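Researcher: Please translate sequence to structure tokens.
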Amino acid sequence: MDASAPYLTDRADDTAAGHVLGLLAGLVNAADWVISHWYVPVAAAAVAWAVSEMVVRRLARKASAERMALELVPSQHFDPGLEEIFRRGVQLARASTSMPWWAPRRSKAVQIRLRADGSSPLRYRIEGPAGGERLLSITPFGPAVTVKRARPLVDKPREHVVRAEFVLRGKPTAPLRDVPLAPDPLQPLIDAVSDLRAELGDLAEIRLDIQRAPKWALRARRLHLMSDARRRERREAERAARWVRQDATGIEDSLAWQLQQLASGKQGGGGRRLVMPPVPRRVEPAEALGKLADDDHLVRVQLLVMCASNTEGRCQARLAQLQAAFDVFGGGSRWAMRGWRVGPWRFGADRWPSRRGFERRWTLGHCQPPRPNWVRLEELTGLLKPPTVHCRLPLLAGDLPTFEFENPQLLLQGIYRGPDGRRRLVASYAKETLFEVGVGKAGGGKTERALAQAIGWAHAGGGLMFLDPHRDSWPRALPFLAHDALMDRIALIDLNASGPAPQVSSWNPLGMHQRQVAHEVVEATTDAFASALGWDDASAPRALTILTASLAVLVAVNEAACLAGRPEDQATVFHVRALLTDPVFRAAALAGVQGRLDEETRSWWQTVFPTLPVDSFAVVLNPIARLAANPVTRAFLGQPAGRYNIRAAMDSKMIVWVCPGGNGPTDRLITALLARDLLRAVRSRRDTPEGQRVPFRPYFDELITLTGAAPETIASMFEDFRKYRVHVHGMTQLLARLPTPVRLSLVQNASTLASTAGSQSAIAPITSEWGDRPGPDVVAALDRFEHYMSLTVRGRRVGPVRITGPHLDEVFAEYARPRQAAALERAARATAGAAPLNQLTTRATDQLGRVGDFLAQLAPTTPPAVRLQKKGYQ
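Model: Translation complete:
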């Protein structure tokens, strides 16, 4: 056994060697076969790859068919913090995995779509797996962002389309630039699409796909980066060692070194010194890996862009603008367009072989970036939220409609200058423009803008009233209203009585020939006097009682005259003096209308009036005496049956221009009477069904003057008129000078707030309503005819936006008819029933006698006291 052991060992060794040689021979034969028949394994690999890719694509298509879409609409005060945006990014990353287990990785993504097509400055949509809808519907942004289910978007084919894919270039471990939240990081992208024109078919869309980074790919990338870092560190250490040795050798061979050795007596003693080369520095993973060091909140992204237009060259220019916008995010890493350029041609997503893959990913929402494109959520802060309050949004035609002449649905607001320099007339919807307020210094363009709006509304067939205490607006608007179609609708109530042969219209506030309600007429006239004179129940109760009782009698007289078919015998406010001071006239009036007075009023005249001292009438008679002393106001108010009827003007779409004539005490009383009558007339529209009430627009120039005469009346207008489809437009130089009730009602209910230039203290109440964006200093520096305004469009506030006020000579140049201006003024005065001043004054003086004659014919022979007693028993 012992002697045969070496033999067995040698035999085993020979057997093992034979096996190794056989294996090597087999490998050589296999390699030779593969080399000879290389097309077989290549074809098998190609078939396997094709089959697997077909299966993966089919599964990915099936998974993509179950996607959902949400649209996020931010409010105007949306101002999120970094933590809220970061939490939203975490939600998006988590939602990207809400897919079935069999779904391929390319379909596990959430897509952010930023789209501009003319309907809004930038629509912000989220598309992702249907399983992530509940997760994405509740955002950390709170009520500042409205989340709603979005419908599929269907685009019409455009003639010209360009596509681009952006990838991360630069140092792979370096982050993108940390862009601050103010101004909004989306501002460059919005500026790039701000000159988009929907009528030319312009479209721009950005799609950012987000998915969680694959773990195995990250590990492989980290190993590669660490190996590169160590290799670079070793090379740096070797390079440093070579330089150290070269420096040491150079120093020892230098003349200075040799002289030093001779001086010290050590020459040749110790030979050359030992040089210690530097040791390679330890590579820190955090430093080498950068943003790829941790798995937390690391995602893979894909950025696709598509621009289209029906006009050649516009989509290419749009893509260049977006490319420049993405440069804002560039830092150690940057977004760069994928592809290469050869002369005038660029080979990228628009050309073979990349276009087909781009189209598939664009249509199905698959995330397959050609480069890793790994970023942390903090780098995407600017794209993870809709536009904020710090974003300056352009005003598109979809946000504020373009004004169309003679369109009754639109109300002219001004001229908007777009980012591309184009100017267009913009408007608001008439049914949404309930009240307007314009503030600014004198000459800033408030009245000019109101005139342009009123003229546009008149040509569209609308009715209006323009109340101007200074009359400057009438000659300015006259040439643009001098059209045959408008002449029959325009009435001029002018109390300035200028010229050699002045003409004045007429109005009887107590007249009953227009079928008014008696107690409403009494109440309106009494309230007008009380408002203009500062009466109330605490300071002047006796004056209010005397005036109310007097007007009740006179209105009853007028009612009797109209029923008798004698409206020319009606009493006026000037008959209050005769009623209080003339016993004969008073007895005749009470006797003639006692059956029309209520029991309380009759009792007051019989029991209370005889006990009043004579001097108690002075507070009532003084303002009436001032009205009678002015020939114009006496002629205007002293006619029995005036032509002025604001209720009929509203219902028949009349254009009424009222010029009270000034802002003195008498003028304020006239203004108060007109304002209170307007309030009465509007409230009387309750007798008309809401759908049949004709829209009417009163324009009040110089609100300070008007509210000084009737503050409570003007405040009630801003509170009540909307119900009756009457919409007030007010203009004032100083909002602070308006009475508090007027100012509060005006600002609270205004659909449009506008301000021209002025002092910062005067403008501050308006800018504070806008959150001081812009601030008073910005508005105060505006040029003439420039406005900042906020408007209501489709139920949402638009602005404040800078608008140039329309100039009549520019906007309505084609409507100017200066040669027909004189004819229009004659027609407007004739419609208002204007007559020579002296003729009306004489008629007003003689009216007392006519009313007395009528009462003498009306009163029966029975004494009033006896008749009242008999009536009471009956």
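Researcher: Any highlights?
Model: Residues 861-874 have pLDDT under 50 and may be disordered.
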